[in-house]
Amino acid sequence: MAAFYFLSHDLDGDFVNEEPYQFNDLIGAIEAAKSALAEMAADGIPLQNGGVMSIEVQNEGRVTVAHLWLRFSIHFIQGVST
Questions:
Q1: Which residues, 6 or more positions from 45, have their beta carbon under 8 angstroms from its beta carbon?
Q2: Could you report the per-residue pLDDT of 4-48, keeping only the tens digit for each?
Q3: Which residue has the higher pLDDT, 72 or 20?
Q4: CA 46/CA 36 separation, integer angstroms
Q5: 36: nearest Cα among 57, 12, 19
Q6: Which of 17, 27, 64, 74 is a good FRET partner for 34, with 20 to 30 A between their CA atoms?
């Protein structure tokens, strides 16, 4: 088992867990981060075009080893009235 920390950035600001999560490997930590990011999005997506929410996966030494992002984008199609 390996220790990983998650640093999340969302509409409410930044959050760092103080206690590490234990996973078999980095892939397991990334899978958990993906689920956490989906829960964050379910709580509310960014309101501005280009708004971002993300989770940094950090190893036991608090070094970022993976960074997952969700970016909200709006693309207007020419000729469509808004």
A1: 51, 53, 70, 72
A2: 999 999 877 899 889 999 999 999 999 999 999 999 888 887 777
A3: 20
A4: 16
A5: 57
A6: 74
Domain boundaries, the chain: 2-71
Q: How far is CA 39 from CA 32, 34, 48, 62, 81, in A?
A: 11, 9, 19, 23, 33
Q: Tell me which residue of 14, 16, 65, 8 sits closest to 39, measured CA to CA.
A: 8
String of DSSP letters for 12-60: TEEEE-SSPEEESSHHHHHHHHHHHHHHHHHH---SSTT-EEEEEEE-T
Task: Tell if the pTM clears 0.85, that is, is over it.
Answer: no
